[in-house]
Design brief:
The protein is of the alpha+beta class. The protein is built from five helices and 13 strands. It folds into two domains: 2-126, PurM-like, N-terminal domain (60s Ribosomal Protein L30, Chain: A, 2-Layer Sandwich); 137-254, 2-Layer Sandwich (Alpha-Beta Plaits), CATH 3.30.70. The protein has helices spanning 41-58, 74-91, 161-168, 183-194, 229-233, and strands spanning 2-3, 9-12, 17-27, 29-30, 37-38, 62-70, 99-102, 113-123, 137-142, 176-178, 198-201, 218-223, 247-254. Strand 6 (62-70), helix 2 and strand 7 form a beta-alpha-beta unit. It is globular and about 55 Å long. The two termini are 24 Å apart.
């Protein structure tokens, strides 16, 4: 099936299973001497694996394996990064996933570098790409934050894997798209293009359209017009896990 205009790659196997792969890299952010943004290795690990995790979950796939490439010494940097990775997986309920790990054991490094990949699977009919019809509203959940603005993986204004899982359980939610470094507008326009629509921005949208969302601190989702922000806020049970996050209508899809 190939590239879908998203930050995931999809391959269709003969039995109808889709392999869904996503990855993220992080450089010059951490505790080392030449890091441009000074935060803990633990935070870097949690934030970086979360990006790949959100991408895989958002298209309806179930994570099956993780790879972690650490461009630094095993300890202390590697252990700090891996501690964050492991905790993020545990908090998502997938702490038992197999994790392939590589670290730099030969050359001393003075700047943090990390690359993470996640491969998941789903049936072709469960793949949630280009599922949004004309007339759907597009909402932004969470706020775009980048660099030193991200000081905690549990920041109450940024999305986590549990929020994607909540959205996946709501009947009527169509495409879910984590926002990355290209900003909200670019992701909204790509969402629309994949579904054969145009994206019409909401004039009252209060967020910066072009700002990077760093480690996917916000996401977009499409839903029918009747599933308003107010209606989403009234949903009962576990589905309300995301309702404390900032939620803004970004626009509408029109064919």
């Amino acid at each position: 099936m190939g590239y879908q205009g998203r930050d995931v790659e999809v391959a269709l196997l003969e039995d109808g299973t889709c392999l869904v792969a996503a990855c993220d890299s992080c450089g010059a952010i951490g505790e080392k001497e030449f890091d441009a943004v000074k935060v803990s290795s633990y935070l870097v690990g949690r934030s970086t694996v979360r990006v790949a995790l959100l991408e895989v979950l958002a298209v309806g796939a179930v994570p099956q394996i993780v790879t972690v490439a650490v461009s630094n010494e095993p300890n202390p940097t590697g252990e700090g990064l891996l501690g964050g990775v492991r905790d993020e997986l545990k908090l998502t309920g997938i702490g038992s996933l197999p994790v392939a790990i590589s670290t730099e054991k030969n050359i001393p490094t003075r700047q943090t570098g990390l690359g993470i990949s996640i491969v998941g699977t789903c049936k072709r009919e469960q793949l949630r790409i280009a599922t949004s019809p004309s007339g759907d509203n597009v909402y932004c959940l969470g706020l775009p934050k980048v660099g030193s603005e991200v000081q905690s993986p549990d920041d109450g204004e940024i999305v986590q894997a549990k929020h994607v899982l909540s959205l996946l359980r709501i009947k009527g939610i169509h495409d879910i798209v984590p926002v990355g470094s290209q900003g909200i507008r670019r992701e909204a326009e790509q969402l629309a293009k994949n579904s054969g629509c145009d994206f019409i921005p909401d004039r009252s949208f209060p967020l910066d359209w072009e700002k990077s969302a760093g480690p996917s601190t916000c996401l977009l989702f499409a839903s029918p017009a009747e599933l308003t922000a107010a209606a989403l806020g009234k949903l009962a049970g576990a589905e309300t896990a995301f309702c404390s996050l900032p939620l803004h209508k970004a626009g509408v899809l029109i064919s």
